[in-house]
Structure formats: structure tokens, C-alpha cells
Write a structure and sequence with these properties.
By secondary structure, this protein is an alpha/beta fold. It has helices spanning 10-18, 35-47, 56-62, 82-90, 107-119, 137-142, 158-167, 205-210, 228-244, and strands spanning 6-8, 23-29, 50-54, 70-74, 97-101, 124-128, 152-155, 171-175, 192-196, 213-215. The strands form two sheets. A six-stranded parallel sheet has the order 7-6-5-9-8-10, with helices on both faces. It has a four-stranded mixed sheet with strand order 1-4-2-3.
């Protein structure tokens, strides 16, 4: 069920955090002083909540209400734990397919990826708590509602999720140009998790190193990369193609 996606005011945001509301991101006015703002900042750090310090003009654009120097985006969906995701997937009569997004930051790319993931039977999407694109109204719209259908997990660190998946018998494939293998050289027929990187930096080197294998898309033109949502779609449909053979 979709929830209210915004909370404004220092005390209201503190109460929301203490009530375990699924807060995606908090915007705080630069240079804000006072005991309540300090209390909020301590809570944000303690809970690992994505935070941006912005000019007051940004907050004024986010809400016409008395924001007191802080606005929070509340996720319109309920997130899963990675343990719940694996447990629920094991109950299905199918070969698992997961997607990990390493620091993807654009909400529309995120929405497009969720939509493709739903269409290709992805069992769950794993993102990092800090630095990842939030699930906003734009995300929901771009996903065509698929964000309500595909389980989404938030973890402290993507690398920890990689290790957890591997321990659960899931092969992890990193989508990166830093390999000689193309997507046609690797198998997606076994339980698999595909890692996609951020729009500007790609996948973190430590995650590439932790993955079981890596694969790239053959690029025959002069442009060196595809939009991440398009690249993700190609990877997912190659997995579908192999599993249909």
C-alpha cells in the first residue's frame, strides 16, 4: 500500500525515525544549529539514513510547509531483509535471479530497472541504505507500479550482500567493462545475482573482486557505454534467453 512520501519538521522526523518509518533520505538545511537538529543528526548517523545538507531554497521547493530546516522522504513501499528475501525465494519452484544495484543514484533509472526486473522474473532487488536512489513517486511512476511487485532489500553494504548470497548458493556476476568476458561467455542458468554499478563510476572494485565472475556488453559503436537501465535490461533478458533454451 502506498504511504505518504514526505515528513517535514525536525521533531516530526525524529519521531518518524524512532517509530521505524522507512525513511529513504533526509534533507537538512546547511548550517542549521540547535539541540534538536543535533539530536536529529545523531539519529541519522546511528540508523545509517541517507542525508544531504542543502540550501534553504531547496527545502522551500520540497515543501510549502514550515519545514524548520529538515524534510524527509518516506518510502512508499515496505522493504525486506535479505534473510526474508532468500527464505521467500527458496519456496518458489524456479531458479532464483537477483539484482544488486551498487550506488545507483538516479530515481528514474531505478524505476526503469524495477520495471524490467518485474518483466524478467527477478526475485528481488538489493540496494545499499546510503547513497542509493530513493524510492520516490517518480520511481513508482517510472516503474509502472512494478515497485509494489518486486521485493526490494536495503543492506548496509553491497559487498556483505554478495557474501550472503554466495553463502546461500547464489552465483554473483558483476556487469563491468573491466573483463574480457561478454554476457555470451557466462552462464545465467544456475541461481544468479547480477550486480549493476552506478551511472558514473560503475561497480566498486572491491565488489568486482568479490564476485564469482564478470561480464560486459559488446559495444560496436564509438560511445563507450549504455545507460545503466538499458544495460541492465540486456543482462536480464540474456538470463531469460538462456533459461528458456
Amino acid at each position: 500500500m502506498q504511504k505518504n512520501t514526505q515528513i517535514y519538521g525536525l521533531r516530526a522526523i525524529i519521531e518518524a525515525i524512532n517509530s521505524n518509518e522507512p525513511i529513504d533520505k533526509v534533507f537538512i538545511q546547511k548550517g542549521l544549529k540547535g539541540d534538536i537538529s543535533k539530536e536529529l543528526e545523531v539519529l541519522l548517523r546511528k540508523n545509517g539514513i541517507n542525508t544531504s545538507y542543502v540550501p534553504v531554497e531547496k527545502l522551500n521547493r520540497l515543501t510549502k510547509n514550515n519545514h524548520q530546516g529538515a524534510v524527509a522522504n518516506i518510502s512508499p513501499i515496505t522493504f525486506y531483509t535479505i534473510e526474508e528475501l532468500i527464505e521467500n525465494t527458496e519456496k518458489k519452484d524456479k531458479t532464483p535471479l537477483f539484482l544488486l544495484l551498487d550506488q545507483l543514484s538516479d530515481v528514474r533509472n531505478f524505476g526503469a530497472i524495477i520495471r524490467t526486473a518485474e518483466c524478467t522474473g527477478v526475485d528481488g532487488i538489493i540496494i545499499q541504505k546510503k547513497g542509493a536512489a530513493p524510492v520516490t513517486a517518480d520511481t513508482i511512476k517510472t516503474s509502472a507500479g512494478a515497485a509494489f511487485k518486486v521485493p526490494i532489500v536495503k543492506v548496509d553494504h553491497i559487498k556483505d550482500a554478495v557474501f550472503y548470497l554466495q553463502a546461500s548458493g547464489i552465483k554473483v556476476i558483476a556487469a563491468t567493462e573491466k573483463t574480457d568476458n561478454t554476457i555470451y561467455d557466462v552462464s545465467f542458468k544456475t541461481p544468479t545475482a547480477i550486480v549493476m554499478g552506478s551511472e558514473d563510476r560503475g561497480i566498486s572494485p572491491s565488489i568486482i573482486k568479490a564476485a564469482d565472475s564478470a561480464a560486459k556488453l559488446p559495444l560496436l559503436g564509438e560511445i563507450e557505454s549504455l545507460n545503466v537501465s538499458v544495460a541492465c535490461a540486456v543482462f536480464l533478458y540474456e538470463a531469460v534467453r538462456q533459461r528458456m533454451d
